[in-house]
Specification:
homotetramer; about 325 residues; alpha/beta; Alpha-Beta Plaits; TIM Barrel; 2 domains; 8-stranded parallel β-sheet; 4-stranded antiparallel β-sheet
């Protein structure tokens, strides 16, 4: 804090301030000249600056927080690279994660996954436990879905990422998935964040559609505090007044995170736009902005998908995306 | 759904549509004249209207959902009245819930609660488990806090409401609290919603600061589906671009909910505004708009509060609020 | 500004900062102790603090702006009362402004206005020049509408307020209207603000649906700078993600403005909600929150109105509103 | 409109609906079977569907608007290409518009413009009349600024774009500028839109930071209706809760406009982000998403700029941007 005393502040009024500082256990330093007095204290997290504002003859109180510690770029500016099998997330090569929104059946899962494998995808996304706004919507296959993911891995060698909704499911997830996904609506679920923070599996953390950049990084901090250093941040659109897309992709957050944090950032254009026809241009934009990868919803017959059918792209659109994304990746000095 | 066929639609194109309808198991009805054909189907929750839009010669598809069933006002228009001890929430008399944001110590809790009891409050709010954006902020006393609430009840006869963050804590909460509180960040925590839906305790459900009215009612529907009919809805402000308050109180939602649902609605002006000096006028506005009660953060020395100190009102401000609220309540035909 | 130098700052680095301050013509004051140096400068409007941030060994730069001068409450805390005929806006008595959205015909205008006169309304709102999003919508009667307003005044003794869209129409408006209305979409139209700032007519300034509180007060400042002290601020809802109302009424701004400014504040629940059935409860809330008046759209057959038909209340609803508003006004120590 | 009658509707209730349709002068068509009646009417712009909803036994009324006519892609899918001197906006080659936010002096304007000319820029942006939120901020050089632009053109052969705030300044602007700029705060200034709609100069229309896609296209429609076909749309960020950037760039609007309209779209990353360090990655993203060009604020000493100094990039940053943008343009099949 910087506490600026009024010019008319008397000795006892300055003393008042110093007594409160001492009561709160803070170190401080006083600066004076013939007219003014300013008191600097050490940075402090939970001190309420209003406490000081209400003391007599205190003119301004300015708080200077250094909020997150582990998420921030460290001094030697190293970026975190996350190894998942033979894939490195956060390095020069971009990571493409793709697959259906929900696992609907073995047939559907394998059909989509095998096509994607053929197109070069190594990590399949597929939801077993689904968050749905309406209790009357399809809620996912649950543990049955996890089993299908396990079969997929064994039969194809693909890796998988799937969303965990409850920290009590963690042991079951850890047996199957290669990356744990925390969904946007759970970005603030602290018990879940703490639980995956103690897991040995990498975590993909989606930004809540109403989270500020700071809140997003704080949620990552909760995970890192548990010892899990392998966190991938994922932008998936924010809620705004704009109504022609499902959400509004906040593209600037990609370079903004890169400036602040050592963690890799990927973009999910499917949830950001909610519109199949916008996925490709927005994906290219994400790569150009510096994203370390993409997460895309793909379905062989989107119109029949059990969930998010308006935003899943078709298999052949995915191949088109890959071809175009390679060129943009190269244009910004990356590989895909 | 209403499916309007193009004027040029041929017999086989209409057949196509009907086959898909039958495949999906929907009842339907055809309307025709010399120029046009329109097909009406029964209402259906999870059918994807895009499926039909892509068929040849389909001009428009209009979906008519009736989304929530249990939350909606029933035919005889009865409003839900929730009995908690000798308090009725949702009746003619307004309910005043007040207390500190966090339980900090026995002394703090009792001091505030006893003052409020004296002022006529019968239900004390006080957080034991706290959601905090930063992992470095005070996270609440946890189970120790629940114990203090139990002591408070035993020694004073007051009732208590406290926020539950994890459904695995439910048995412990049920031993102590009179109302379970679901916080704004957990409005989408389906496991938690389902768990409290099976509890015998009333539930106060806070609107997420980024939830639409429809999403808010859907979350309540999750609880009602479990059999728990005693849900109190709580508006606490939404996140907007406006920056002079912590959130923006969406005052219109009070009458808008009343028009749609039988559930009682209360307002939390503390989180909505985040500013002590705005609490009283906004509280009066909530009552005038038809709220069934208020939930207010109160502290004997807000500047020293461990959390939310800028929005807690002082004990004497609370008494002032009560006096003024009584008059406004009377002006709109209610009692406090 | 407060400029805090790094502990390692050398004499010449401090000199650098002082030279820039002097170049910019600012007075300053230096505070020092054995470890730190802090430089305070006089408040300054257009100085770019980044200029200082980029100098070597400057640790923090804090700007302390006092932005608006004329809009702010003056030292003796007097509130502005605006006389319009025998009405005083901003005093103890609330002001009710009502009328149709658009003037459609003499018959329509007189029919509504005479009913409202009978119900005690003294100031009629009615649009002659209409802003419409679509160029294909009804754009108002224009000058013909102003003539009808003039006839209305002459025949009934009522006063009128109407929106001006272009500063070149000011002379024609000044001949007719008692209050000039600046619409939400013109809150940033500086030429218009400057023009009405030189008028002798009071001005009702609507908040843009995307304006912060600060921007709203700055627009009022533009008017006051021209010499026109009679500005009425009008909250009419902001644009948010919430979708069950046309806009979201920001009710807290009523007391927030009262805390900062001496100008009267009224609320327009018609545009804020866009829903006929929400007007009455929201109007009562506005009064309870401390508004100095209301501006309400009324129509004898809203379904046939040329514009804003979903938000106009019926004549009999208006009378119901008046009766209920009187009671709430009294409950908060005001009169209607 | 599609009007669906209730199953119990009697002959006279259907007649009621038809009479109203006829009164409104609409063509219609009736569809019936043994159970239901549906009435289809011709599309209609200003008919109030509520009018029908309130009639007895009307179950649903669905409106199907085709809102804008001139802005929409025409049947043969041609895109508008706008010729400004030897530059074509909207073709395969991207257009780079750059320059200072405000004209501060001849020296400043020429220094920046000559550097940019050297870097291949052909159209210079520079504000003579500035919109400023605070009346105490620098408001631009006004007509003196226009004169400097004229000198710049004569001495360098560069073309210029500058913002017009008031339609009465149009003759003076037409003497100087090659493209008229309508700023975000004037997107709803209908008199200004109509005036430039009758000009022979191309118009760059910025999206208001609170405009939906539909409102943005409607404002362009106002211009096209006047006969001016040469409209360039410019996305420059929308106002959201997100607070680490000045606005939130709505990147998806680029392909979304391309799907709907034949008009070229450019992106202004300077206002969208408000942060110098985000300009380059966001510019590359805009090109990858399909933008037809960029408009960038550049200054030789941004820290000393009179306005928008935090978002202007340095001259050498601009050259870096050009080099990188060329590669991304090529990757998406365009040229720069």
């Amino acid at each position: 804090m910087i506490i600026v005393m009024n010019k008319d502040a008397q000795h006892n009024e300055i003393e008042n301030v110093l007594m409160l500082i001492q009561k709160l256990g803070l170190e401080f330093s006083i600066l004076k000249n013939e007219n003014n007095t300013v008191i600097l204290t050490q940075p402090s997290y939970d001190i309420n600056s209003e406490l000081f504002k209400s003391l007599p003859k205190v003119e301004y109180v300015v708080t200077l927080n250094e909020d997150y510690k582990l998420v921030y770029k460290n001094i030697n500016n190293l970026e975190t690279k996350i190894k998942v099998g033979d894939v490195v997330i956060g390095g020069n090569e971009l990571t493409m994660i793709a697959g259906p929104c929900s696992i609907e059946s073995k047939d559907q899962l394998f059909r989509i996954a095998l096509h994607l494998k053929n197109s070069g995808v190594k990590i399949i996304r597929a939801g077993a436990f689904k968050f749905r706004t309406s209790p009357y919507s399809f809620q996912g296959l649950g543990y049955k879905g996890l089993e299908l993911l396990k079969e997929l891995k064994e039969e194809t060698g693909l890796m998988v990422i799937s969303e965990i909704l409850d920290h009590h499911d963690l042991p079951e997830f850890e047996k199957v998935v290669d990356i744990l996904q925390i969904g946007a609506r759970n970005m603030h679920n602290i018990n879940l964040l703490k639980a995956v923070g103690e897991s040995s599996k990498p975590v993909l953390l989606k930004r809540s559609y109403s989270a500020t950049l700071k809140e997003f990084l704080f949620s990552a901090e909760y995970i890192l505090m548990g010892g899990n250093k392998n966190v991938i941040l994922c932008e998936r659109g924010i809620r705004t007044f704009s109504d022609y897309t499902r959400n509004t992709l906040d593209i600037s957050i990609v370079p903004a995170i890169k400036q602040r944090s050592h963690l890799p950032v990927i973009v999910d254009p499917s949830h950001a736009t909610g519109k199949r026809d916008l996925i490709i241009p927005v994906s290219l934009a994400a790569i150009a902005a510096g994203a370390d990868g993409l997460m895309i919803e793909v379905h062989h017959t989107p119109e029949l998908a059990y969930s998010d059918s308006e935003q899943a792209i078709r298999l052949e659109q995915f191949d088109d995306l890959i071809n175009r994304a390679k060129k943009v990746a190269e244009a910004v000095g990356r590989k895909l």
